[in-house]
Amino acid sequence: MMRAYVTGGTGFVGSNIVKVFAERHGAEVHCPVHRFVSTDTGGFTTERLDLLDDEAVRASVGAFEPDVIVHSIILNDFAAMYADRDLAWRSFVGTTATLARAADEVGAKLILVSTDWVFDGTQSCADEDTPPNPVNFYGVLKMASEQAAMLGAARAAVARVSAVSGMHWMRDHTPRVQDGGFGYFVTSIVGALEEGRPFAVWEADNINMVASPSLASECAEVMWRIAADTEAAGVFHCCGGESAGRMELARMACDVFDLDPAPLSSTPPDTGAVGAVGEFPIPYDTSLTVRRTRDVLGYEPPGIRELLTRFRRERSTGALAY
């Protein structure tokens, strides 16, 4: 049985990693958390832990003795990142470096969950070997974390996700709605139209307009393949096999969820929204390709409609979809 140490396991992507690893593949999963603590919750255990405490983290990893560490936790607050850059650096890069050392001490593989925002938005269909060129501090932090993982751990992989839709298995509601990226975009559309409310799709030059949509549980499945393959290392793209613009994705979501697209409209981003008034730049086109991921893992990514269909199934059944 694989033993997996998952940071951020109570977050959006992290909750899918925990569920896929524990429920689908029978792994023993342990999650360090800030607040939510239980001895056994849905097949995984937790402990309260400050990931900024180097010695405490290494002791925790040493006590659990995992086969793999999946590092998905982030400081998910752009205002906080810019307000306290030292804290942001320690939260992203520092924790990654600590976990790289901890992984080597127990002989574990380290998988860092990263993002398509390490690219500048002009490198359409970037593959795993395309040099990153982030345009905002979040992208810089993720790029530096990738380097901390790859240079710091003997066995390391980077799993970049993109335009993630899907279930948050630890919450019955989404923590936010449409923003300058694609996070919770489909969920927001479906929720609004099901309630009979119109939905204005943000379209502008200063937000993320094109990406390669993915499903959180499918991203987690790719990470499982990386964990299970003892030779798999380096950068992988955990996303679907197609790219789309915001309105195109919105219309496909309506079609798959059997919703009338008539209430959809196009509008500039709300004043004060992430990236809408120039607080920081956002990459325009973050579409990815999976050339290396396909070659190394033998993985064929699903298309957008297939991923949306699985999302609908998960949403209606409350269970993982294949």
Overview of this protein structure:
There is one protein chain. The protein has 322 residues and is an alpha/beta fold. The protein has ten helices and 13 strands. The strands form four sheets. The chain has a seven-stranded parallel β-sheet with strand order 3-2-1-4-5-6-11, sandwiched between helices. Strands 7-10 form a two-stranded parallel ribbon. A two-stranded parallel sheet has the order 8-13. Helix 2 runs parallel beside helix 4. The longest helix has 22 residues, at 85-106. It starts with a strand and ends in a 5-residue tail after the last helix. The relative contact order is 0.15. The model has no long low-confidence stretch (mean pLDDT 93).
